[in-house]
Design goal:
single chain, about 650 residues, alpha+beta, Chitinase A, domain 3, 4-stranded antiparallel β-sheet, 27 helices, about 45% helix, disordered N terminus, disordered C terminus
Length: about 650
């Protein structure tokens, strides 16, 4: 029990402090752990009506914003980067809002019965057993260990008071007019079919244009850095089921493949074994190559594939008269097989033990051999490699990405589809810039893409779109009337709603924009131009429109509830945004605000603290607490790192603020 108490000590304090940053959560999410700098924890960045804003709080907000930015792609921005683009100022304003809210809620002097507080605390996941039932033993043990009950009650009462205050403020958001939700439901389920035309003027590219782009942008053509790695693999492929071998033996002994397949599948009427005709593809998945390698009439051994063990038969080979490609008419029987989680865990543990021996200095080849495995070596590969010898396609992409991502932590266990790996990079080769002749087509494509992003090209699109709109021509006539402008026309094969995506049909426009433009249209009416994702323009002609019936809408009760929840959430956000803006304007006129610009400049590396080059700020703990706490209790999922912040705030609050 003492071990349990030590494990959850931080979490206990976290529940007391977590809602201090409620307004902050609306923009940035829950704050993350502070930097491990005691000076930073004690430094006061600003004071709002006597409520201090600590440097550590500001850093946590910057960390959260930087992490959110990095998830969108690219490197994690430094604090200086966040200062330059205005994010740092926005974080500070959110912290000021949080302090104002704390002051305003305290003025209400809201009182909560201690029995209510205890009841709420008993709902925390840390006091529940595996079945979600309250555990009296753990609760009583915790109570016996706590000495500062009055402080805990006071802090929790303050938190609940703020929650009640915010609930009262946002209450109007839940007064959703039923008609509005019904209208949204109906609009979400209107289906339309359209004809479309994409307005994309051609771009001429000469040899000189391509060469100029290559010469002026050499880094755009640099190949990725290449790596060579040593690895030890431990197979996750289950043994061939005896039943699969028996089926092969029966068919090779003369039984009909289709009859055996029907018997095995239990589907007497339907022939599920027929794969139809497929072209022989040299880049096909490894298990499919077993089919293509068979002679007509031959049956394969069981082959490991994505669904289990596949048994193939080559019925016939032909040359397609239209494509002149070799095609195979195949059949298959799939015998499911999977290694049990227990077996996989045993192998992962064994590989982990080998990795530890190597990390402790044992020779990798010797450690592998002692376990009946072998040390192997890859060919050079990069981030975009589609072949790595001697790996199979099933493991290639996982191996490629994880080995490069973990190149600084060698001999870590990696899990592929067919194998477990431990590996380390033994050689790195810098990416080279190919000769122009090797990438000439890429240079032409890049020049065209560059031109299509130019203001001049986008202005041409707008001008042509204006001409097409004035012509009032139907979609089918546009290509003939504007052959150099209208590059693509067609018709959607199926009706769609505004919730759908049209990427598979190569229509790069938001479906909701199309539906909105045609919501009051009749068949034959044209809408446009509508801007596409890449700056191009599109025109759409309504073919048919189908509105949902009352019966269909009545069957969508769950969807209606989701719409009501979404409308309430949007309304709540708008109310809270307006409320905080009003609160800021009113209270800052009467509440003293002091800002320590020296601390602010030091954190953001500006003024006398400015440096020419600055490494990106490092997180002291993972910002993404949710990922690591996915299997934790509700209390834990909020993040133990924020609990550390609570402890710090508790410890530093007694010090004299600077």
């Amino acid at each position: 029990m003492q071990d349990w108490m030590r494990k959850h000590r931080r979490l206990i304090f976290f529940f007391i402090f977590i809602f201090i940053g409620i307004p902050f959560v609306f923009m940035w999410g829950k704050p993350t752990s502070p930097h491990g700098n005691q000076a930073a924890d004690s430094a006061v960045l600003a004071q709002v009506g006597g409520v201090p804003i600590k440097e550590s709080e500001f850093r946590r907000g910057l960390d959260a914003a930087a992490q959110a930015r990095s998830r969108q792609g690219g490197d994690r921005p430094s604090y200086t980067d966040l200062d330059k683009d205005g994010t740092a100022q926005a974080v500070l304003e959110q912290l000021v809002d949080a302090s104002l809210l704390r002051i305003r809620a305290a003025q209400r002097n809201f009182s909560v019965d201690k029995r209510v507080l205890e009841k709420q605390m008993q709902q925390w996941g840390m006091f529940q057993d595996e079945n979600g039932v309250f555990n009296h033993e753990i609760w009583n043990e915790w109570i016996a260990s706590v000495e500062r009950w009055n402080e805990i009650y006071d802090e929790l009462e303050e938190v609940v008071g703020r929650q009640m205050y915010l609930s009262a403020v946002s209450a109007p958001a839940h007064r959703i007019i039923a008609a509005k939700a019904q209208n949204e439901l109906k609009s979400d389920n209107i289906k339309i079919k359209v004809k479309f035309a994409k307005i994309e003027p051609q771009v001429a590219v000469s040899d000189d244009d391509a060469r100029k782009h290559y010469d002026e942008n050499p880094e755009a053509y640099r190949l990725p850095e290449q790596y060579k790695a040593e690895f030890i693999a431990y197979s996750l492929t289950p043994d061939v089921p005896e039943q699969a071998n028996e089926l092969v033996a029966r068919i090779r002994a003369g039984e009909d493949f289709v009859a055996v397949a029907k018997e095995y599948s239990g589907q007497d009427e339907e022939d599920s074994s027929d794969l139809g005709w497929s072209p022989v593809n040299p880049d096909a998945a490894p298990y499919m190559k077993a089919l293509y390698a068979l002679e007509p009439g031959a049956v394969s051994d069981p082959v490991w594939g994505p669904l289990g063990y596949h048994i193939f038969k080559n019925e016939e080979i032909r040359i397609n008269p239209d494509t002149e490609e070799k095609e195979v008419h195949g059949r298959q029987i799939v015998v499911p097989a999977m290694m049990t989680p227990e077996e996989a865990a045993i192998r992962e543990k064994a590989l982990g033990e080998i990795a530890k021996k190597i990390q402790d200095g044992e020779d990798a080849a010797s450690a592998a051999a002692a376990a009946g495995l072998s040390l192997q070596q890859t060919s050079f590969f990069g981030r975009t490699s589609t072949e790595i010898e001697p790996l199979s396609m099933n493991d290639l992409f996982t191996f490629r990405s994880q080995v490069i991502a973990q190149k600084d932590t060698p001999w870590t266990v990696l899990k592929g589809r067919d194998n477990l790996f431990i590996t380390h990079i033994i050689e790195t080769a810098p990416g080279t810039i190919p000769e122009f002749a090797e990438v000439e087509q890429d240079a032409r494509d890049n020049f065209i893409a560059q031109e299509k992003r130019s203001e001049a090209y986008l202005a041409r699109i707008d001008e042509y779109a204006k001409q097409i709109k004035e012509s009032k021509l139907k979609i089918d006539s546009l290509a003939g009337a504007f052959p150099d402008i209208v590059q693509e026309t067609g018709e959607t094969p199926e009706a769609f709603t505004r919730k759908d995506t049209l990427f598979q049909q190569k229509i790069y426009v938001q479906a909701n924009e199309i539906v909105a433009a045609l919501q009051d249209a009749l068949p034959g009416d044209i809408a446009g131009p509508i801007k596409g994702f890449f700056g191009d323009a599109w025109f759409f002609e309504l073919v048919e429109k189908t509105e949902p019936t009352e019966e269909e809408l009545a069957a969508l009760s769950d969807e209606l509830k989701n719409i009501e929840a979404r409308l309430a959430q949007n309304a709540e956000y708008e109310i809270m945004s307006d409320f905080m803006k009003d609160l800021r304007e009113r209270m800052l006129a009467s509440v003293a605000y002091k800002q320590n610009n020296d601390v602010l400049d030091r954190v953001l590396s500006r003024g006398k603290y400015a440096i020419e080059e600055r490494e990106p700020e490092k997180e002291t703990a993972p910002v993404d607490a949710a990922a690591s706490a996915a299997d934790s209790s509700p209390g834990e999922s909020a993040g133990a790192d924020a609990a550390a912040a609570a402890e710090t705030a508790d410890a530093s609050g007694s010090e004299e603020d600077k």
